[in-house]
Amino acid sequence: MEKIRVVIKIGTSSIISDDGKIKRKFLSNLAHELSEHTNVSPIIVSSGAIGLGLERLKIKKRPSDMPTLQAAAAIGQVDLINAYKDVFADYEMLVAQLLITRATTADRSGYLHARDTINRLLSLNIIPVINENDTVAVEEIKFGDNDTLAALVATSINADYVIILSDVDGLYSADPNTFKDAKLLKRVKKLTKEIEKSAGGAGSVRGSGGMITKLSCARVLLAANIPMLLCNGANIQNLRDALNGQAVGTAFFDDASSGLTAKKSWIALGAKVKGKVVCDDGAVVALQKKGSSLLPVGILSSSGSFKEGEPVDVYDKYERLIARGIASYSSKILEDNIGLREAQEFIHRDNLVVF
Ligand code: GLU
Q1: 353 CA distance to ligand 1 middle (Å)
Q2: C-alpha distance from residue 65 to each of 59, 70, 131 (Å)
Q3: CB neighbours of 144 closer than 8 A, spacing ≥ 6?
Q4: Ligand 1, pocket-test mutation among 8, 130, 208, most atoms within 8 A of CB
Q5: Residue 107 in contact with residue 272, Cβ under 8 Å?
Q6: Which pLDDT tens digit goes with each residue over 171-214?
Q7: At what angle do helices 211-224 and 146-156 cross, to 10 degrees?
Q8: Whole-number pLDDT of residue 141
Q9: d(CA 355, CA 220)
Q10: Ligand 1 closest atom vs CA 131
Q11: Cα 191 to middle of ligand 1, angstroms
Q12: Which atom of ligand 1 is nearest to the CA of 146?
């Protein structure tokens, strides 16, 4: 019987305690649950390297300089993967370490190789434990957060669903720390303006994600037709329920979504977005309702510097992200063509992911 592929994203706060130590109890609960769910092929995306490294270096406050963060990641990744290896061995499960950078996945063949390796590990019944290779990633080629990395992994291997274990119970109608009447949203089918507004900022001392990156991840997974469950990792019952296929926390899922082709999944997340265009209402309708290409005549403005073949975000004039696609030509050429009726399409429909 084909196993269910579940990507489990574990945030720093779920795996590292406030004093910077690994939460062994959490890890053994995780391993225990996975050993009980033999119909599931787990793929773990785990943060924690930087947090553990900082603890080893006795650094209390997250530094802002890259070399120190990268050194911390290099130190902490060893502790992180060792903890997985040791704890999972108690349950007779073998783990494999994959460290991925966006420099690799921006190149389609690198992306496909990473995908093939994960698929092979799964067929060997080995649990991939994936993190960003923080030691070599620099700003321009960084995922920056493991939520995005988890979405990339999930879409590349066509996962059945994604569980994001976090320190929040899910997505609320407003910030629950400020608004006492904020309600947990149990089901999200579409990222509306209100939902985006409720996400706020965030990111803890040791981790780097917040609700915004979780919504970016959800946006792509909604388009890819891969359900995502965002729930609190502190309660292991959540993981148990999620592995049993029950909805916990906030379930992001749109039954009406038709999914993404393999190439479009890569377009959505493989490489870092290099620029942004804003388009008029007519173009928005053409993209969303008619499956059209994006033409310069519908573009109002362009920002950022990008070359032909690089990914660009498409916004409506109300500042909402509506699509992402591969530029047919550079920002320089686009600037000369904005608004022109007869100009060549800027993003071809085959290279466009509409959210
Ligand atoms: N890759 C980072 C780490 O392992 C974490 C990134 C994140 O928090 O999303 O420490």
Answers
A1: 27
A2: 13, 9, 20
A3: 132, 208, 213
A4: 208
A5: no
A6: 988 877 788 888 999 999 999 888 887 776 444 444 445 788 89
A7: 10
A8: 74
A9: 7
A10: 1
A11: 25
A12: 9
Q: Hey, which of 47, 99, 211 would you mutate to test ligand 1's pocket, going by the most ligand atoms within 8 Å of its Cβ?
A: 47
Torsional sign, CA 100, 102, 104, 105: positive
User: Where does ligand 1 bind, in terms of residues with CB under 6 Å?
Assistant: 12, 47-51, 73, 131-132, 134, 145-146, 207-209
> Could you tell me the distance, in angstroms and rounded to a whole number, from the CA of residue 298 to the centre of ligand 1?
39
Residue holding tokens 């070399």?
67
SS3 122: helix
Q: How far is the CA of 203 from the centre of ligand 1 (A)?
A: 11
Separation in Å, CA 189 to CA 64, 95, 217, 223, 347: 37, 34, 14, 10, 26
Looking at residue 194, its pLDDT comes to 83
Question: What secondary structure letter does DSSP report for 10?
Answer: E
User: For residue 205, what pLDDT is reported?
Assistant: 41
Q: 10-residue block means of pLDDT along the chain (355 residues)? A: 94 92 96 97 97 94 91 97 98 98 92 97 98 85 89 96 94 83 92 80 48 91 96 96 95 91 94 96 96 97 97 95 97 96 95 96
3 state DSSP class of 183? coil
Classify the phi-psi angles of 20: left when phi > 0, otherwise alpha if psi is within -120 to 50, otherwise beta: left
Q: Is the pTM of this model over 0.90?
A: yes
Provide the edge-to-edge strand list for the sheet that holds 352-354: 299-304, 275-279, 311-316, 321-326, 352-354
Report how far ligand 1's centroid is from the alpha carbon of 145 (Å): 6
Rounded distance from Cα 144 to ligand 1 centre (Å)? 7
Q: What is the pLDDT of residue 328?
A: 98
CA distance 22 to 173: 32
Q: Ligand 1 atom closest to Cα of 149?
A: 9
Q: Are 74 and 53 in contact (CB under 8 A)?
A: yes
Q: What per-residue confidence (pLDDT) applies to 209?
A: 52
Using the structure block, give the residue that is written with the tokens 């073949």: 309
Atom 6, ligand 1: residue with shortest CA distance: 145
